[in-house]
Amino acid sequence: MTRSPAASVFSYSARHRWAYVPTVLFLLVILAILLIDPTIIWKDLDPATRRNATLLAAALAVGFAAALLARWASPFHFRVDADALEVAPLIGSTRRVAYGDVTDVAILPKTFMRSVPEVMLRINRGRPVVIRTDITGYKQLERNLRRRLAPDLQARWKEVRDS
User: Fold this and answer.
1) Verdict on whether the full-model pTM lies above 0.85
2) CA–CA distance, 77 with 34 (Å, rounded to integer)
3) What is the distance between the alpha carbons of residues 47 and 156, in angstroms, rounded to a whole number?
4) How far from each other are the two terminal CA atoms of the chain, in whole angstroms?
5) What distance separates the 2 farthest-apart alpha carbons in the chain?
6) 76-162 is a CATH 2.30.29 domain
7) What are the contacts of 105-112 at 24+ separation with CB within 8 A?
8) What is the rounded distance in angstroms from the CA atom of residue 12 to the CA atom of residue 76?
9) What is the pLDDT of residues 65-83, one digit of tens each?
């Protein structure tokens, strides 16, 4: 996470950005071996087993690549401006969310598929904005952002955070 001292700008670490890349590359290498010359790894490979392994490697590679693209398309940089929250993914366009357009705040708990709690800001128009709480400087981001919301949303955020 890097934060500019002059402005309230927050972003996730490189670990968050590149987490799935080694897995995708490993699966692509396995897929290439299965397609080109599986005898590099296996001797006397049954054609049905080769086909199944190829399909499995391809499905896993596509699945992890989709997860990587979804992560890159999700908010990565957050800028807390005076009039709006600026949310920018790694791929895609920057989105400005006026503080008046935020209708509700929810905290999604940590689960098996969600490694850390996430704050979800429901927006009047458009998709909700989700902020992972493992962003370095989260407390300052929360404080800066919460101050700019309507008083009822400030109270709601404090209520769900403390519960």
Assistant:
1) no
2) 39
3) 60
4) 27
5) 70
6) yes
7) 105/149, 105/153, 105/156, 105/157, 105/160, 106/160, 107/160, 107/161
8) 6
9) 898 888 888 888 899 998 9
